[in-house]
Structures are given as structure tokens and as C-alpha cells.
Amino acid sequence: EAARGLRRTFHNSALIPYPKNKVQVTISTRDRENIFREIYSIVIDPNSHQIKKDRPYRNSKVHKLLYNGEPSKKVDLLFIGDGYAKNEMEKLQRDARRFMEILFMHSPFKEKRDMFNVFLIEAASEESGPDDPRKGIFRSTVVGTSFNTFDSARYLTTTENRLMRDIASNSPYDAIFLMVNTSQYGGGGIYNLYSVFATDNEYDAYLIVHEFGHAFAGLGDEYYTSQISYSDFYPAGVEPWEPNITALLDRENVKWKILLTPGIPIPTPEDREKFGKVVGCFEGAGYAAKGLYRPMIDCKMFSKGFVDFCPVCSKAISDMIDFYCE
């Protein structure tokens, strides 16, 4: 809704393996019909004098929380704490270790723990806690996290992409956790960008895992009753690209067909007693009560309860882990 009256741009980064020779990098964008269209292309010469080779923001310390081998052959997770003052570095380390273990309590992460490295960058903020614009609170922190993204009170993110990347460049990483030192509920997860979560509230264990599902595997939100920041997120008549949401445009070839429970009716009735533990197509997903479908009645991407990922979401995560470790 904020975009209807406010025009803004957001800085982002394209991450590529460091090339040995000249390479051409092309960026394409997915349109509303899920068709990719080229918007930018450039030839990059790694030996060019125009390539910056310094490593900024050296005022930090990198901790190896879990190390299973060469970063190029593992999924490298990086925790960056925000809103941790200089006297809270011990809390920063405790929080990072606690949330790492929470992540590995869930499938498929726990079964593939040996395929991960986990790092923590210890960098102190000048002040404790994130910004909260609705309360008139603005703090000086390492990566500038803030509530009220897109004018949604609980949407906690940062727009300081370059600052975040400069700090992250001190460590290997494939995926970034922004761990925000606050007891106020909030977070966010954006595919191939980062996952953000608040550390000290009753849903913090849910937040880290749920938001990482977005950021790491591109999973979509399956709930449809909570207040959100988006309008018309999924256009009618277009199949969503996320692996766990379908518009059911082709009922004979549902995208998770290989995981469907044999003989299951499509769509699947919302009957917890009869279909509570099966994989089908349940209406209500992607912020819409009608027209979009999810694989199971409940899942980590659907509710805040102590529930694991459904088989469809779990497979999407597992496939991504394998992709990074090939």
C-alpha cells in the first residue's frame, strides 16, 4: 500500500563467484506473468583497475560456530547481530549459538547438519535495539534494522544493503541471518537477500526458521488471515513461482504431484480429522483465502505453532542444500 503514494528505490547486490577471466553478467527480472526479461548486462574483467579490491569494515571479529569443511563445498550461514551494544557481545554470542541449535532441531536441517558451516560476525552497535519509527525511536546500529518496513508495524528489515554487504564480506557466506536485539515481535525473509528475526520474544524460535524458509528456499507464506504489507501479491490466473503455493491451474499436474498422498481429492477438504496429516491441495495460502492452495493443513510456513515443515517445503529446502554442496 505504501507504494501507491510513495516512489522509492532499493539498493541490492548480485552475488557471483569471483571470475578468473572476463565474464558477461546478465540480470533478468520476473514479470507479473513469471516470464524472465533481460534488464541489464555487463562484461566484468576481474583484472580491471575499476574493480575495488579492498575489504571494508574491518572493525569486526569472525567466530566459527560450526565448521564442517571447505566453504566452497558447504552451505555457509552467517549471523550478523544488530542492536547489540559493546557491553552485549556475550549476549550476541549466546543468542547466535542458541538460534543455530534451534535451526538444526528442524528437518531437513538436522539430518544435513554436516553440510553446513555457521559463522558469526561480532560487531558492536553504538546503541542497543533497532529503530521503531512509530514510537519515534531511531538508534545507531551496525546494519540499521528497523520496524515499520512498507508501513507495516511488525515488518523488521534493513535497507542498508551496502553496509550489510561490507560487513558480511569479512566472512564466507551463502545466506545471512540478521539477528536483531529486541523483545518486540517482528522479522522478515526475502529470497536470496537475508532473513531477519527479533531475538527475545515468545515466537523467536518460530521466527528464525520461518523467515529462513523464505530467504533460503524461496518458500511462500501459506497463511491468509494476518495483516500484511502487500496488495495483489499473486495476480489471478498466474501460477506462483514459489514451490509450496499453487493456483491449481492444472489439476492433473500439481507442482508437488510426486508428494501427493495417493487417492487424495483435489482440492482437498479442510478436514483435520480426515486429512490433517496428508499432502494435498488445501485452499487458503499466499495471503488469499480463495484461489491459492497449500500442500498441508499445517506447516512452519502456515502457523506459529511448534510444527515442522511439510514434505513439500522440506524437499525445497533439501534441494537447495544439495545445490550449494554439489
Task: Walk me through what this model shows.
By secondary structure, this protein is an alpha/beta fold. Helices cover 17% and strands 20% of the residues. It has 5 helices and 10 strands. It has helices spanning 89-103, 161-168, 204-217, 272-275, 311-325; strands at 23-30, 36-44, 61-66, 75-82, 116-122, 175-180, 187-190, 194-198, 282-285, 288-294. Strands 3-5-4-6-8-7 form a 6-stranded mixed sheet. A two-stranded antiparallel ribbon has the order 1-2. Strands 9-10 form a two-stranded antiparallel ribbon. The longest helix has 15 residues, at 89-103. The radius of gyration is 21 Å and the shape is globular.
Largest sheet: 6 strands, mixed
Ends distance: 41 Å
Major sheet: order of its strands?
Answer: 3-5-4-6-8-7
Number of strands: 10
Q: Give helix and strand order, one letter per element, not per position.
A: EEEEHEHEEEHHEEH
Q: Estimate the helix proportion, in percent.
A: 10-25%
Percent strand: 15-25%
Characterize the overall form: globular
